[in-house]
Protein 1
Amino acid sequence: MKTPVHCLLAATLLSFAIAAHTQNFSDIKPSPQQTAWQDLEFGVIIHFGTNTFLNREWGDGTADPKVFNPSSVDTDQWMKAAKSAGAKYAVLVAKHHDGFDLWPSAQTDYGVKSSPWMNGKGDLVRMASDSARANGLKFGIYLSPWDRHEPKYKDPKAYDEFYLKQLDELATSYGNLVEFWLDGAGSAGRKYDFESIINELRTYQPNTMVFADVALFKYADLRWVGTESGAISYENWNVIDRTGYLRWRPIEADTPLHKLHWFWHPNDESTLKSVSELVDVYNNTVGHGGQLMLGIAPDNTGRLPEADVKRLKEFGDAIRQLYSHNLIVDEHAKPASPDEYAAIDNDPATFWSAPVGSNHATVEVTFPKPVTFDRALTMEWLNDGQHIQKYTIEIYKDGAWQPIVEAQAIGHKKIDIFPPVTAQRVRLNLLSTVGEAHIREFRLFADNANGGR
Ligand code: FUL
C-alpha cells in the first residue's frame, strides 16, 4: 500500500506531466537573445574555400590544400558590400563539408595553414571577423558537422571530440558570435553528441543563436525555413510544436545571391539574381516575419566579383527606396487616439498595446488628404509572445470600411502588398488576438514604379 508521501509524490509528478502536455502556444515567449536576433532581420553567409578554386559546390575532402591560393583577399570589401545591401551581420563558413579550415586549427593540417596563401600563416576567420566588426556588422560562424576529409569522421566518438576542439578554438578566439550555424546536410542518419557540443558552445558563447534544421530542433534557437528558394510560403508562427514540445524558434531563410550556387564559379554572371528577384526575396522573407540569410561568395582572387558588389548595393538601394518613405509620417496622418501614436511613429523601439485582456482592437489613421499606397508594413512586439492570429487592413470608402488585406500572423514584420488604393482613412483591424495585441509599427508605402503616390 502507498504511503501518503508516495501519493503526494505521484500527484506532483502527474501535475508536472499534465503541465508539460498543456503548454499553450500563446504562453511561449522568446528569449532576449532571440528578439535581439530577430531585430537584425538580414545577414549574409560567406562561402570561400577549395571549392572556389575547383568549380565545385560540395568538395569530397580530397582537394590538395595547395589549390587554395587567392592573390588579393579583401575581407573589408566583402563586409562593405554586405553592408551596402542592408545586412546587419555576416556568418563565415569556417569549414564546409570538404573539411578545409579557413583558420589555423590545431586539430588538423587540412586548411589554410597548408596552403600557399600567406605562406600558410593566414587566418581568414580573424580577417573576416575583424572586417565585419570594423564595418559595424556582427559576426557568426558555420562549422560543418559533416567532414569528408577528417579520417576521425569514421569514428563518431573520436570525431565528436575533434569537432568539440575545433568549436572551442572558434568560440574562444574570435569575439562574440551572433549566430552559430549547424548544417544538417550530409549528416542524415549520423548521430553527433550535440548535448556536449551545445554545452561547450554555451560555456563560451552564452548569447549565440544556434541555427539548425528542424531535425536538430532540440539544440537550436532558430529553425530552417525548409527551402533555399528565398521565401516563407506559409503563415509564419514563431512557436513550433515538435511532438508536444512547444518552443519559440524563429525562422531563417537562406538563399544564395547566385541561383543554386553558394560558392563562386567561373563565368557565372547569368546566375546572379536580378534586383527585382532580390526584392521579392526580401518581401517574402523579412516581409514574412523571418530572417534573410543571403549567400555571397568571393572569387578565386579573394574578392567579391564587381557585378556582385554592384548588385548588392542595387538591392540595398531598392529596399531603402521602397521602405524609407512612410506615408503615415511623411503625409502627416493622425491616429484615432493619442496612445496609438506609438504604433505609427516610425520608431520600432516604441509600441502600442491594446487594452489589457482584449481580443480585438484597431489602429486607425486619418490623412489630411487622400493618399495612394500599395503596401503596408506591420510589426508586432513579440517579447510577450505572438498574439495576433487574424487581421485585416481596411480603407474607409463609400461610407464603410473595406478590407484590402485579410491575413493571419503578423510576427516580427509583415509586408502586405496589394494593387494601389487611394484613401484618407486607413486602419489595421486586429480581428482576433490571444490576449492584448502589441504593435511596434504600422506603416504605409507606395512603390512609385507601381503607380503609387
Ligand atoms: C547547405 C549546404 O549543403 C550548402 O553547401 C550551403 O553551405 C548551404 C548554406 O547549406 O546545407
Protein 2
Amino acid sequence: MLIRRQEKYQLKEHQLTSEVNYQRRRLLQGLALSTAAASTGASAFLGLGDKTPPLAKRQALQAKATGEGDYLALTPEVKILNYNNFYEFGTDKGDPRRYAQDLVTNPWQVKIQGEVHQSKTLNYEDLFRQFPLEERFYRLRCVEAWAMNIPWIGFPLAALLKSVRPTMNAKYVGFQTLYDPKQMRGQASWRIGGGINYPYQEGLTIAEAMHPLTLIAVGLYGKTLAPQNGAPLRLVVPWKYGFKSIKSIVSIDLLEKQPETTWNQLAKDEYGFYANVNPHVDHPRWSQSTERFIGEGNLFSAKRQATLMFNGYAQQVADLYQGLDLRKNY
Ligand code: MTE
C-alpha cells in the first residue's frame, strides 16, 4: 500500500512544478500501488491521476507560496530515463537505456546479512509489500556536476535494517550490485565497463544508513523503476554524490569495518568514502561550486545553478559530521 507522508526534508509541493505529464495527484487518489500492479513487471504503474492544475497556474501558486517568485522544477521523466550512469551497461549516457532493457529484474533476490540477529532474503514481491511505500521528491547531484529533481517511490532503508535487528558490531553497511556479465555487457568487457572492477559496491556508516532521508527506491514518477535507473531496487542518498546511490542491489551487508567502495578503489584522490555534496571542496579536475540542472528543454539549455552544501539537506544531516574534517573526509 502506498502511504504518502510529508516530511520536512522533502521538497515541498509549493517548491515544485511537476512535469506536465505527471499527474501525481492520482497517486494520492488511486493509491493504486496494489501488490497486483507492482508485481506485473517493470513497466507497471504504481498509480496515476488527473487532478494537476495547468502548469501556468501551478507556477503562479508556487511563486506565491514561496514568496520568491521562484520554484523548483521536476526533471522530466524522459530525461531521467535517457540520461544515466550505469557503467555495467556502458559509459555513454545513452547506453543504460539502450542496453539494460532485457535485464531480468523479476524474479530478484536481495540478501540482508552480516552483523544482524536475523538475516533475511527479500524476493521481488517483498520489495512492494513488506514496507509502506512513500513518495519523496529529492534532488540528485552527480559528482560530474549535473543535477536533477526526481519524484522517487520507496521506503526508508532504516525500516529494512531494523527488521533484521543489527548487532552492536554493525558500524557500516555495504551494498552490492548484481554481477552477471551475460546480462551486463560492461561487466564482460573492461573497455565497455569503464575499467571498473565489478561488482559495483558502495557503503555507508550505520548512522547514514539509518537516517530517515536514506531511501530504498523501487519506483519513480509513479511507476516501478526502469532497468536503467536501477530496477528493481536502488539506494538513494540525496545529500551525497550520485555514485553512492547504487543500483540493482543484490546484497546488503552489515559490517564492523568500513567496506571498500568502487569509485574510491578506482581513484582514491577523486572519490572519497563519504562523498557528501560539498560546493567548497572541488574535484581535483573540476569545480563543484555549481551544477547543470537538467530540466525542461534540450540538454544544452540546461541552466547552471549553485550547488548547495549537503545538496540542500544540511539542516537534516550536518549533525552526522560534527567534528569531521570534510576536506580530508571528502
Ligand atoms: N550503480 C551502479 N551499479 N553502477 C553505476 O555505474 N552510477 C552511479 C549511481 N549508481 C552507477 C550506480 C552514478 S555515478 C550516478 S550519478 C547515479 O547512479 C545515476 O542514477 P540515474 O542514472 O538513475 O540518474
Protein 3
Amino acid sequence: MRKLPRILIVEDEPAIAELIAVNLRHNGFQPIWVADGDMAQREISEVLPDAILLDWMLPGHSGLLLARRWRADPRTKAVPILMITARGDEPDKIAGLDAGADDYITKPFSTQELLARIRAVLRRRAPEQVADSVAIGELRLDAATHRVTHRAQPLKLGPTEYKLLHFLMKHSERVHSRGQLLDKIWGDHVYIEERTVDVHVKRLREALGDAGVMVETVRGAGYRLTSQPQSA
Ligand code: CA
C-alpha cells in the first residue's frame, strides 16, 4: 500500500481550507487542516508532512514568520512550503520566497493550478527526502538505500521492522503508544490488534542485536527508541 502524500493546510478561513482539503483528498493526497501557527507546530512535531500549504495572513504568527521558522529548523527545513497569498504584489512574493517558501499561489486560484504546484514542489524536493538518513548513537539508517547499520555493521530487517525503526529513529526519545505506532506505521485504515506491535518490536530488537536495548518498553505507555538505554 502506497502512502498518500500528507499535506498540512495552515489556513484560518474554514471555507477555503475545506475546499482545498476536499480537492486534495479527491486527488490522492492526505490533507490535514489547522487554523493557526500553534496548531501547525503541534501537528508538525507529531508527524512531519510531505508539504505545507501556508496562508500568508493568519491570526497570531504570520505565514511569513512560520515559513522562516520552519526553514531554520533542521527537522522541517526540507519540507516544501507553498505560500497562499491574497496579495499579488511583487515585493510580497519576493518576501515569501526569501522567507523560505518554495513557491506561492495567489488567491483566488483554480484547483488544477494548486494541484500542479503541489506536485511540482514535491517533485523538486524528492531527492532530498529520499536521501534522508538518521543516526542515533552508533545506529544508522539510510533511507536512500534502506540500509541499517550498527557500529558500521549491516543489519537485516524485514519491511515492517524497517518502517518501525525509521519512525522510532525519526522521533527518538519520545514514548509512542501502541495505538500511535499502529496509526503511523500501518495506517488508519487497517485493522490490526495492538499485540501485533509487540510482535514486530520483538523482531526489531532481535534484528538489531546489541542495539536492541535501544528500543525500550515504557510500562503502561508504549515504546521509545533512546540513545541511552536504561539496561545497557
Ligand atoms: Ca487568512
Protein 4
Amino acid sequence: MFVRKLSEARDTARHVKSDTWDSVRLLLAGDNMGFSFHITTLYAGTETHMWYKHHFESVYCISGRAEIEDKATGKKYVIEPGSMYALNEHDRHTLRAEEELVMACVFNPPVTGREVHQPDGSYALEQS
Ligand code: 9YT
C-alpha cells in the first residue's frame, strides 16, 4: 500500500499543464495498477476537443459545471458535481467548462506521465 497527496504532487513531474486544463496524475502506468488516476482542473470558459482513440476514460465531476457534447450524435449533457461520464466507445467529445471544473479521471490503459492532446484530440499509446 502507498498513500499520495494531491497537495504534494502539484508542481512535480506528475503535474501536467495544457492550454485549457491541468492534470495531477496521482497514479501512472509505472505504478502497475492497470489504470491511471488523475485530478484534472479545466479552466472556466474553455472548450476542449478530445478523442481518446487508444484509451477508455471515465470522469467524475467533483466541482464546477460544464456541457459535454458527443460529436457522433450531437447530443449534449450537463456535467455537474456528482455526474460521471464514461467514454466507453472512444467517443469524440467536446467539453465546455462554464465554471472551473475539478474532475477525477481514470484512464485504461494507464497514461505514462507527460501526455497532452495530439492535434486529433488523442493521447499517444505509449509503453512505459
Ligand atoms: C476531462 C479530460 O479528459 N480532460 C483532459 C485531461 C485528462 N483528463 C488528463 O490527462 O487528466
